[in-house]
Amino acid sequence: MQPDQWLKDEPLKPSEQLFAIFSSASAVEPLKAWPSNAQMPKPIWAETIYAEWDAVMPYVGIVDADSQFLDWVATTESRDWGWLAVSSAGLEAVVEHFRSLTQVLMPDGKAVFFRFWDGRFLLPILESSEVDAGQLLPVLTRGLINGQAVEIGGRAQVSGREFPWWSVPEKQLAQFGGDARINNTLQWLSEEQPALFEAFPADVLRCKVVRFFAVSASDESSASALLDYLRDESE
User: Which Pfam families did the record assign (predicted)?
Assistant: First the structure.
């Protein structure tokens, strides 16, 4: 389903606004597609310890119903750029809630990053019988994720939460495999490539590894490609 048809099927109410949730981690760089005459999107991690992670920064922006950004959404072939959502809450409240989802809790109590901007990752979670979408995203009423309309059911005007507060159901663990891969990669770098591992501050290195996997063409990205990428970044 295209954005225009989605909005035609259920037009925005006077109290509602259309939002885009997206990330710079996507290779198609949705921030560059944002109209220059529109209000700039808000960086979600701006007030966290990850405020400098520009390469993978997630954003929330208000989208006008006639925005050129919707044309870009309709034509992009990317499935990890982000998604659209409707809310009657204000921009700051939506940003605040997504900031509270920066990290979530695994069943063992460990906090991991949550790729809430990636539709490939989020859609199965919202559709799961194990997840109450309105509890996970209480400030959103509905969304359009990779052409699929999703009822969320949230009605809250504010969030008031701080991460990590949401616990991942056991049956959803497969969706969080990417974080384990990143941790394993960092461990491998520390043991097998100590010079590269020590070439960056720890948070910067993690950011770069996240970026590499986010833009790589497949899940079978080779170790040599990662090493080449990190060597280029260190020069």
Answer: DUF4123
Q: pLDDT tens digits for 77-100? A: 998 899 999 999 999 999 999 999
pLDDT at 158 over 70: yes
Residues 141 and 61 in one domain: yes
Distance CA 183, CA 205 (A): 11
Does residue 61 sit in the same domain as residue 117? yes
Taking the C-alpha atoms of residue 210 and residue 213, their distance in angstroms, rounded to an integer, is: 5
pLDDT category of residue 215 using cuts at 50, 70 and 90: low
Determine if residue 144 is left, alpha or beta; phi over 0 gives left, psi from -120 to 50 gives alpha, anything else beta: beta
Residue pair 19/60 in contact by the 8 Å Cβ criterion:
yes
Domain boundary among 119, 137, 168: 168
What's the order of all strands across the beta sheet hosting 17-23?
Answer: 42-43, 58-63, 17-23, 82-87, 142-145, 148-151
Q: What is the mean pLDDT of the chain?
A: 88
Number of structural domains in the chain: 2
- Co-location of 47 and 159 in the same domain: yes
Domain shared by 198 and 122, yes or no: no
Burial level of 128, CB count in 10 A (0-12/13-18/19+)?
A: middle
Q: Which one of 114, 144, 168 terminates a domain? A: 168
What pLDDT is attached to residue 173? 66
